[in-house]
Amino acid sequence: MIRVCLFGIVMPLVAIELLFLLGIYGMSRRDIDAKMTRELNKISESMDVLMTSMNVMSWLLMADGTVGQGLYSYFEEEDSVTKGNLLIYLQEQIGHYEVANPSIGNITYIFVPSGEGAPRKINQTSLAYGSLPLDEHILCHKQQVTYYGPHMSDSKVAKYPCLSLTRIYKEGIAHGDVYIYLESGFRYLETIIPSRVEEVNAIFRIEAQGGETQYSTDEEVFPLYKIPEASATGLWNLKKKYKMYELPKEGGWKLQLWVPMGEYYSHIRTLTLNFSLITLMVVGICIIISVQQWRGVYRPFVQFEEYLQLIAESDDVEAGIFRMDIREFDDQFALIEKMKNDIALLLTRIQQEEKRYNELEFKAVSGKMTPHFLHNTLDTLKWFAAEKQEREMVCFITSLNKLLLYNMSKIPETTLGSELEAVNNYIVLQEMKYDLDFHIEAGKYPQLLVADMPRFCLQPLVENAILHSGSDKVQVWIEVELLINGKIAILVKNTGKPLEPERIEAAKRLGKDVSIAGIGLPFVVRMLENRFGDNFEIKAMHMAGGINVVEIRIPFEMGKALESRGDEEDGERRHDKGVHSGG
């Protein structure tokens, strides 16, 4: 038992937990790395926007047709009054720029005289003192401008860290050069640069293009305006103590985050431990549930084994089983009892179905006996008429007998040839009553006569052609054709009263019979649908010359009807043999 628990449960769970911890450890490292990278990208994007705005503003101050041109006119103008008015105009325009761009402030034009003279600002309304930043504040040179900082603002009003920019407006004017100077807005840079990175106490550092520290949240580790640990050994020691994340920028300067190794791994361990505790709780709950389920299965089996031993030693097995009082066994016995009842009910149903089948079979045999005796009677009449030398009566009875045998057959399939032969027998009967001119044009393809055909389809059409002709002399004929698409066309034609195609189409569509005898077009359509599905056509038309046509198109199929016809002919031969021997 202990070995099973140790090797079957504990050790696999410990191995799974160790693998899970390794995965969580790697995931935690990737999480903190991604967090530091996102922080750097956020700062970088904000500083890029600020520096681009400052660059665009300095370009406008130099090239704009208002301020730039006004300043150019100011230097060229010799009249003091006009020069004063130009200066007032420049100051007003610069004020408008500062109000419209809150991220930029202290816009100043500074005149730097040749030699050792001190710089002085041209627009005196500027809040800046008018001095140029120190060289140690240089961040980078980019796009004909020089960026400085972060450094303390040159403002007279307040001191706050800022980025600044200088661009030469005009060189070589009388006695010196003119620079455009501007800074980031009031405390605007503080919203971009973090004072500290939460959770890991990372040090944020901005490195100038020369490698010096321009900004640092910990000046003890990274003193300002100095290259940190200039020797390779010193830099290596720093990288042993800190995990560095760096983002190089255009112009050679860099943004860096230095995370203390202790904080870095402590954060990873904290994340890993939190995930581990959660997984251990889940695994523990699963173990408890599994143990409870195992006990719930193990105890009944132990009890079951004990009862089996008692039953094996007892003579009354059934009583012993009921004494076991195991719910699972009770359910199984109830299921077996239900199965027994279902089987008994099924046997009863089978017996009832067998009885019903025997009754139907008896009815079918009785149904077959009726045409059998009818055929015997007609056959007796035929022999009687033959003895009296009544040839027309013999022909009539023979045709009637064949037609009845054909139409009363229980086999629904036949061949086109058999169907045409049945129509011929029907015409022999009708000639006793009508003056008929009937013939069949089977065409030049006798193979068509073995095509499959539903039984009793052509006789209703021929009957309607005779009864609807409306004349004493009736001409009816049938044509059989092979179409190009491989189908067989059967055309029943007659002369006389024109038929109504619309009425026939309605009868075909709505199932309304239009025949006099009561078995007409809907019956034929239903028989064709049962045999061919949708693969047939039937239509009626009145052609020139007073000829009515009902056309049936069916696929050329053969095989099924031939087998049925062979069985039917064998039955007829056996039937005829019995009749003759009986006669």
Brief account:
The chain is an alpha+beta fold. The chain contains 13 helices and 17 strands.
Describe the overall structure.
The chain is of the alpha+beta class. Among the domains are: 31-186, 2-Layer Sandwich (Beta-Lactamase), CATH 3.30.450; 203-263, no CATH class; 411-582, Histidine kinase-like ATPase, C-terminal domain (Heat Shock Protein 90), CATH 3.30.565. 53% of the residues lie in helices and 20% in strands. The protein has 13 helices and 17 strands. It has helices at 2-63, 67-76, 80-100, 232-241, 261-313, 317-323, 327-387, 391-407, 416-430, 458-467, 501-510, 521-532, 560-582; strands at residues 104-113, 120-121, 138-142, 145-152, 161-173, 176-184, 203-207, 213-216, 242-248, 254-260, 413-415, 435-441, 452-454, 473-482, 487-495, 537-543, 547-555. The strands form four sheets. A six-stranded antiparallel β-sheet has the order 2-1-6-5-4-3, with helices on one face. Strands 12-14-15-17-16 form a five-stranded mixed β-sheet. A hairpin with a 2-residue loop joins strand 3 (138-142) and strand 4 (145-152). It is elongated and about 160 Å long. Mean pLDDT is 77; it is low at 574-583.
Determine the number of helices (DSSP H or I, runs of at least 4 residues).
13
Looking at CATH, the homologous superfamily of the domain at 411-582 is Histidine kinase-like ATPase, C-terminal domain
Strand element count: 17
Poorly predicted residue ranges: 574-583
In what range is the share of β-strand residues? 15-25%
What's the level 1 CATH class of the domain at 411-582?
Answer: Alpha Beta
User: Which overall shape is indicated by the principal axes computed on the Cα atoms?
Assistant: elongated
Structural class determined from secondary elements: alpha+beta
